[in-house]
């Protein structure tokens, strides 16, 4: 059976994979995929934090809901609410809305948000869980 650190590291690896996919899509000018992967990376970073804190969370792509749970554990998460809110629609709506095609500026904003959340979570988890991430 895996311990908590192993589980958190697995989620962080998945988040890093989405972060890399976001960057590759952005470089290829596939901005809808870049935004999708930015949302997915943030979702996994938040869920990794909740796993580390041994806190259950719903099966949701709604980043605001996940941050609200995090706020119950650490009020500093309030500072990232406005950063994650714009990303939530990229999980589902973006994938199925044939009329929504983000531009380079939107993709850059999504990347910046994902990087900010990654650094925010990094500051709240012990360094050993980040080994190789």
Would you kindly provide a written description of the structure presented here, covering whatever features stand out?
The protein is an all-alpha fold and 133 residues long. It has a single domain, classed as Up-down Bundle (Four Helix Bundle (Hemerythrin (Met), subunit A)). Helices cover 63% and strands 0% of the residues. Helix 1 packs antiparallel against helix 6, helix 2 packs parallel to helix 3 and helix 2 packs parallel to helix 6. It is globular. It starts with a helix and ends in an 11-residue tail after the last helix. The model has no long low-confidence stretch (mean pLDDT 93).
Assign the CATH architecture. Answer: Up-down Bundle
Strand content: under 5%
Give the number of helices. Answer: 6
Q: Compute the average pLDDT.
A: 93
Low-confidence residue ranges: none
Number of E strands? 0
CATH class: Mainly Alpha
The CATH homology group name = Nucleotidyltransferases  domain 2
State the CATH topology.
Four Helix Bundle (Hemerythrin (Met), subunit A)
Helical content band:
55-70%
How big is the Rg? 14 Å
User: Tell me about the biggest sheet?
Assistant: none
- Classification by helices and strands: mainly alpha
Please outline the helices and strands:
Layout: H1 4-27, H2 31-52, H3 63-73, H4 81-84, H5 93-96, H6 104-122
Summarize the structure.
The protein is an all-alpha fold and 133 residues long. The protein is built from 6 helices and no strands.
Please name the defining characteristics of this protein.
0% strand; globular; 63% helix; mainly alpha; Four Helix Bundle (Hemerythrin (Met), subunit A); 133 residues; 6 helices
